[in-house]
Amino acid sequence: MKAEALLALAEEMNAAYPFARTFMISAERGHGVEDLKAWLGAELPEGAWFYPEDQIADLPLRMIAAEVTREKLTLRLHEELPYQLTVETERWEEREDGSARIDQLIYVARDGHKGIVLGHRGETIKAVGRDARVELTEFLGRPVHLFLQVKVRPNWLEEKERYTEMGLEFKDGD
Asked: Is residue 133 part of a domain?
């Protein structure tokens, strides 16, 4: 967006709403982010930590890892299978060298879906694994060894445990 149009829009919005402050931020270049962080730091009241200081998220790491892989599958497969697959972190091993070994199962409902997830000569699953490993390595700040396996699990969508794990309530017949 051109600067003139952005400034005019900001002026219009500031006249219409009682904002405490307006920040011009560039997602592409990162301009303005430090100003926003400094302002938020000064404005937020001090209080007790909601979580332990060394906890990096409010979800278990196993679930975060599964969601990262599921996101990569959804991005790669677009609209082919986004709601017909799930990912479970089956095993998480902390290794002596500081890295983590993560074994995940990708469950699909039908045999034909397995081939879609694997892709021609395994290209899809390799790309998904690579992208997920890169993001997990960055997120955890240490090397990750990610192993993916695809299994057919008919009716997994009807399993109550899938929803309970995500903090959702499962109602029979819904």
From this structure: yes
Are 138 and 130 contacting, i.e. CB atoms less than 8 angstroms apart? no
Question: What is the tens place of the pLDDT at every residue in 77-119?
Answer: 877 765 678 899 999 999 999 999 999 999 998 888 999 999 9
**Amino acid code (one letter) for 169:** E
Stated length of the chain = 174
Q: DSSP per residue over 57-118, as a string?
A: -SS-HHHHHHHHHHHHHHHHHTTSSTTSEEEEEEEEEE-TTS-EEEEEEEEESSHHHHHHHH
Give domain status of residue 47, yes or no: no
Three-state DSSP class for residue 38: helix
51-69 pLDDT per residue, tens: 766 666 666 888 899 999 9
Containing H/E element for 143?
A: none
Identify the CATH number of the domain in which residue 68 sits: 3.30.300.20
- Model-wide pTM > 0.85: no
Quote the number of domains for the chain: 2
